[in-house]
């Protein structure tokens, strides 16, 4: 039997139940927002009202030893967009594309990101581009000042200087090594903002101004650096080589006057470099087997220990046979007969170098090699320095063959900075110095000067003098007319090193050597130690031919630049 009003009652109860559920849900949400999430939401609101902005500090300049600017800041702008305020993304993209160096489609995509409120469109705009953008007066487009790092001399000393990346942090070279000094400390602006994100003029705010970075003065002399870079470029081009390095050092202080390497890059356009290989500095990080230039070290150790003298003789056969039957030969299997230690250097005799190492013994030899700084970083103030590789008798990779080949610079890995620094110790009378490239740090409060730092004595002064005289004789006999410097007495030694093959053994064929010359002068009062290293020369594998002309050119121009008079004027008319 149907009861009038029954259906209506059920509907009322259902509606009441729905109302209760809805009211409960609303109440829960209110409770959740006000009680459970209240502190978090309040914090978010506070963060929106009081937003912190970092204000970049002005990076300090980098100057060469003559005061020339190698790196500095110039005014620039960053262009950004408040996406929801951009009225016409397509038109905005069309107008901005030719001004900021991005494609129209790329800009349009950036302006139409659904999950973004704010987007940076480009960094470090030129003043001309910024002015044209201001004239457009585009809604939602914001220009904010930020410094731009520039390198007025382009690729000049690029691997020494390094560059500043998009985050305005130093990358590579001095910019990285001294980033906390030259980079300064960013400022801080905490301001109360309105709904559009603008600072409220009468609101509460905190302003901590940035502290600008210090100015760095390098030991690099731009005139010497130019000499080195030009000589290196000519040698690499003439030899069709893969690259190379030239270092010029003051042997008395350890200061680096020039450090050039190829291939190189322009730090103003680092973002255009596809292969980042040239960013690194091979002068401090690229290990190689030095070949016969290392005979300077072997001979220094033998003379200092008293196991040989310049007049000590050895029967310089074409090879030496080891107890296991291994034969180690002179280059081109040459046989020199009876030769003095001076002639061992002149002939670049491998057998002669092995003779010296034999008289020293393995323990004294490797102790001396490490005393000269090989096998560990020199401590030069540049990033990513390698320590090289020296396998001593306590290494599982050492063998008697290793011992003898190390004596003439194969099987041992050095860096250019290690070798030039070790030879500088011979030039200055026997003291190993700490190499450095920053000579002054100037900030608003004080100027900090780098003082030369002796590391340790490596040989006696008498030994250094003996070896210097021997190397001068090598220049005046073996290298006369090849790359000697007429009128000046310079001590030097060449090297032609084989390149290890990944498959084992050494590479063969054209471009499979590293050719080098290292030396110092004038010997009466050494002012410069110079290393010229040419990687994979194709025209000639030999140090004297591939690297010798550049070595000669560098010294000739150094003597002219510094006004150093010749010690043997009569040689100027004869000579070579």
UniProtKB/TrEMBL annotation:
Q: Name one GO molecular function term.
A: penicillin binding
Q: Which Gene3D superfamilies match?
A: 3.30.450.330, DD-peptidase/beta-lactamase superfamily, Penicillin-binding protein 2a (Domain 2)
Report which superkingdom the organism of origin falls in.
Bacteria
Record keywords: Hydrolase included?
A: yes
Q: Keywords, A to Z? A: Carboxypeptidase, Hydrolase, Membrane, Protease, Transmembrane, Transmembrane helix
Name its cellular compartments.
Membrane
Q: Where is the Penicillin-binding protein transpeptidase domain?
A: 244-555
Protein's UniProt keywords contain Transmembrane helix = yes
Which lineage ranks, top first, belong to the organism behind this chain?
Bacteria, Pseudomonadati, Thermomicrobiota, Thermomicrobia, Thermomicrobiales
* Gene Ontology terms describing biological process: cell wall organization
Membrane-spanning ranges: 12-31
Where it mainly occurs, coarsely classed, is membrane
Q: What is this protein called?
A: Penicillin-binding protein 2
Where in the numbering of this chain does the Penicillin-binding protein dimerisation domain appear? 55-201
Pfam annotation, one family = Transpeptidase
Tell me a GO cellular component.
plasma membrane
InterPro entries tied to this protein: Beta-lactam/transpept, Beta-lactam/transpept-like, PBP_dimer, PBP_dimer_sf, PCN-bd_Tpept
């Amino acid at each position: 039997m149907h009861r009038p009003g029954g259906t209506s009652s059920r509907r009322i109860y259902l509606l009441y139940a729905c109302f209760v559920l809805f009211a409960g849900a609303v109440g829960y949400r209110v409770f959740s927002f006000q009680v459970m999430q209240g502190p978090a939401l309040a914090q978010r609101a506070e963060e929106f009202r009081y937003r912190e902005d970092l204000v970049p500090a002005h990076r300090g300049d980098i100057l060469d030893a003559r005061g020339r600017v190698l790196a500095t800041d110039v005014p620039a702008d960053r262009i950004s967009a408040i996406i929801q305020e951009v009225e016409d993304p397509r038109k905005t993209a069309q107008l901005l594309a030719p001004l900021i160096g991005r494609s129209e489609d790329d800009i349009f995509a950036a302006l139409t990101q659904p999950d973004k409120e704010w987007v940076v469109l480009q960094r470090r705009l030129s003043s001309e581009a910024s002015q044209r953008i201001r004239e457009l007066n585009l809604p939602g487009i914001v220009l904010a000042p930020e410094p731009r790092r520039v390198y007025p001399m382009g690729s000049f000393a690029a691997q020494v200087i390094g560059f500043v990346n998009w985050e305005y942090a130093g990358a590579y070279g001095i910019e990285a090594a001294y980033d906390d000094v030259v980079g300064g400390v960013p400022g801080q602006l905490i301001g109360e903002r309105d709904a559009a994100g603008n600072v409220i003029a009468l609101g509460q705010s905190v302003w901590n101004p940035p502290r600008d970075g210090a100015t760095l003065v390098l030991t690099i002399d731009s005139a010497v650096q130019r000499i080195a870079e030009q000589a290196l470029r000519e040698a690499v081009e003439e030899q069709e080589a893969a690259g190379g390095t030239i270092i010029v050092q003051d042997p008395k202080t350890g200061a680096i006057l020039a450090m050039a390497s190829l291939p190189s890059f322009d730090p103003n356009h680092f973002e255009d470099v596809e292969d980042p290989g040239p960013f690194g500095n091979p002068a401090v990080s690229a290990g190689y087997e030095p070949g016969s230039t290392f005979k300077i070290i072997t001979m220094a150790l033998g003379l200092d220990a008293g196991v040989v003298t310049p007049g000590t003789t050895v029967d310089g056969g074409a090879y030496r046979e080891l107890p296991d039957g291994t034969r180690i030969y002179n280059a081109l299997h040459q046989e020199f007969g009876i030769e003095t230690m001076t002639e061992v250097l002149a002939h670049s005799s491998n057998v002669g170098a092995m003779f010296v190492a034999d008289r020293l013994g393995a323990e004294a030899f490797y102790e001396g090699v490490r005393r000269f700084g090989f096998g560990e970083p020199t401590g030069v103030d540049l990033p990513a320095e390698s320590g090289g590789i020296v396998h001593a008798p306590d290494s599982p990779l050492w063998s008697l063959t290793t011992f003898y080949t190390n004596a003439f610079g194969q099987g041992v890995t050095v860096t250019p900075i290690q070798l030039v620094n070790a030879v500088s110790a011979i030039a200055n009378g026997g003291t190993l110095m700490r190499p450095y490239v920053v000579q002054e740090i100037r900030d608003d409060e004080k100027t900090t000067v780098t003082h030369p730092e002796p590391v340790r004595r490596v040989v006696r002064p008498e030994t250094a003098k003996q070896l210097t005289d021997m190397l001068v004789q090598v220049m005046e006999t073996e290298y006369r007319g090849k790359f000697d410097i007429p009128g000046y007495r310079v001590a030097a030694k060449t090297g032609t090193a084989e390149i290890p093959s990944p498959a084992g053994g050494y590479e063969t064929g054209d471009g499979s050597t590293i050719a080098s010359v290292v030396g110092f002068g004038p010997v009466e009062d050494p002012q410069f130690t110079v290393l010229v290293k040419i990687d994979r020369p194709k025209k000639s594998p030999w140090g004297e031919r591939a690297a010798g002309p550049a070595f000669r050119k560098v010294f000739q121009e150094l003597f002219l630049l510094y006004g150093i008079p010749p010690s043997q004027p009569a040689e100027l008319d004869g000579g070579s």
